[in-house]
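Hi support team,

I'm filing this because I wasn't sure whether my run with flavin mononucleotide finished correctly. The job status page said complete, but I'd like someone to confirm that the output block is well-formed before I use it downstream. Pasting the exact inputs I used:
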Amino acid sequence: MKDLMLELSKNPFLLAPMAGITDSAYRSFMREMGAGILTTELVSAKGLNFASEKTRRIMSFTDEQQPVGVQLFGEGPEELAKAAEYVEEMGAHFVDLNFGCPVPKVVKKMAGSAVLKDMRLLSEILSTVKKSINIPLTIKVRTGWDQNQRNTDQVTQIAYDEGVSWVSIHGRTRSQGYTGLSDWDYISWVKSVSKLPIIGNGDLVTPELAVERLKNSNCDAVMIGRGALKNPWIFYQAMQLLNKEEKDYAGLSLMDVITKLEKHLSQFHPEKIVVLQLKKFSSWFSAGYPESAAFRQSIFQIKSQPMVLDAIQTYFQQVDLNQGLKTSNKPFLMGGHG
Ligand SMILES: Cc1cc2nc3c(=O)[nH]c(=O)nc-3n(C[C@H](O)[C@H](O)[C@H](O)COP(=O)(O)O)c2cc1C
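And here is everything the job wrote out:
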């Protein structure tokens, strides 16, 4: 098995988990597009424990995606520990626990970000899950429940005491939802007082920003979510900037990117889903380019895979590829599970 920390240092640009988006097909695509360590979207521990086919499908991954972690959410130590054992049995590289999900249905059951309000529960969960597995355990958190209860320093200390391998921090509180901005000063401060590797996350929409935040925050790595949905080259670009390499972004055009995406989608999904996903992803890729609204509107009227590809080709051929770095900063996908 690869050394997780070595992998983190080799490529410090990780794909952030996004429910309904970062499925197995998308993760394979992102690995090909240069993303570092991958994590599944949040997976219900209860679903796994009840052997739900749907839940098992959500957590599925391939060997090519390794090192890949499975992110779990659930109610209490025992439920999470049982699911974590299953995740290990299935060959995942690590287990990640979600303590960031702000969704009311989840926090009502003292899962997701609700755990950030109860340090005893956090310790109990971490110690029980840690004992149940031999693979690394990581956690992903928000900065706290609300502005008056920001406690990632405390959370990180507990995680360290319980043998967790790293803490990923989305720099918003639970109450903030997706409003405001990720607080990178706070993330940097946590990093400066933490004994654990820290992965910073939030609003990294350009490769420049990803590299700047990585350096200035002193974080061990950064995670990119929505930025990759607008700019699928972001991981390549960030790596090249970090290594001070000449710009070439692997010589890919947007159409090349779509072709790669289609290949991965077709490996995992039936045609109907491939068509839907192509529409969704190409709409996101088009954000910030000229005439993107008209493109989005037209593409959703089309039904067949060849015609969708045709429309995508026609649109992206017109796009000036040099604009790849200039993705817009407008609010994008203001909701999610972490
Ligand atoms: C649609 C969507 C779904 C998300 N699902 C998850 C999830 O399953 N688990 C998780 O930890 N975070 C989830 N998140 C949060 C992201 O991982 C990330 O923390 C957040 O989007 C901020 O990073 P970004 O600005 O790079 O997108 C989700 C975010 C979005 C937009």
